[in-house]
Write a structure and sequence with these properties.
single chain, mainly alpha, 2 helices, 2 strands
């Protein structure tokens, strides 16, 4: 079986140009004008503001979580220091540990 191949199109003129249009333009030496529509912008300014607001709200939420965690850690550290200062020294088997130093020292005369 033998197939007749269509003539090659020059350059990047692709198969999207109908064959009869191509042949008539080459016979009359007229150029082929390809018009491509401009794509419609998908997002508007309002959508950008929406995304910006969501991003800022998320950032504020993360900052709030970090502030709450830091406040919790500070509270835990102060509570541990208060308990250690009020408990006094701990002694186990002859080894005595002072968990906290007293804040006021007495001068001996």
């Amino acid at each position: 079986m033998h197939r007749n191949h269509p003539p090659d199109t020059p350059g990047i003129l692709a198969p999207h140009i109908p064959a009869d249009t191509y042949r008539s333009s080459t016979a009359t030496s007229q150029p082929i004008v390809i018009v491509q529509p401009v794509p419609v912008p998908r997002t508007s300014r309002r959508n950008h503001l929406y995304y910006l607001a969501i991003g800022l709200a998320g950032a504020a939420g993360v900052m709030g979580l970090i502030a709450a965690a830091l406040a919790l850690f500070e509270f835990a550290a102060r509570t541990a220091a208060l308990i250690a200062a009020s408990a006094g020294p701990l002694g186990i088997g002859g080894i005595t540990l002072r968990l906290a130093r007293p804040t006021s020292r007495r001068k001996s005369a």
